[in-house]
Amino acid sequence: MKITKETVEHVANLARLYLTEEEKEEMAEKLNSILEYMDKLSELDTKDVPPTSHVIPIQNVFREDEVFDSLPLDEVLKNAPDSEKGFFKVPRVIEE
Predict the structure, then answer these.
(1) Which residues are registered as beta bridge partners of 73?
(2) Three-class SS of 6-36
């Protein structure tokens, strides 16, 4: 499948992007380059290659949950720019 300038214009219109004629040509070339590379990759024989999500094997490292006391409220609020009744006071962002 070849990406044409018209295809780029259509996608740009859907995305509400304004592209100059030069940018449309450049984008079409870049997208075609990507598709050509994908075609080369599809030529590879991968029937004996197991599916992977990472190139190297990785393993999550988890730690045990530890229960401990919280910081005292005064210490938590001491660097807050503003507090009220034991809570952080922030500017209103939702209007009624």
Answers:
(1) none
(2) HHHHHHHHHCCCCCCHHHHHHHHHHHHHHHH
47 DSSP 8-state letter: T
Q: How far apart are the first and last CA of the chain?
A: 52
Domain locations in the chain?
A: 5-42
Q: Which CATH superfamily is domain 5-42 in?
A: Glu-tRNAGln amidotransferase C subunit, N-terminal domain (1.10.20.60)
Tens digits of pLDDT across the chain (96 residues): 789 999 999 999 999 999 999 999 999 999 999 999 999 988 889 888 888 888 888 888 899 999 999 999 999 999 999 999 999 999 888 887
Q: Helix 21-42 crosses helix 5-14 at what angle (to 10 degrees)? A: 100
Whole-Å CA distances, 30 to 15, 24, 33, 36, 73: 18, 10, 5, 10, 56
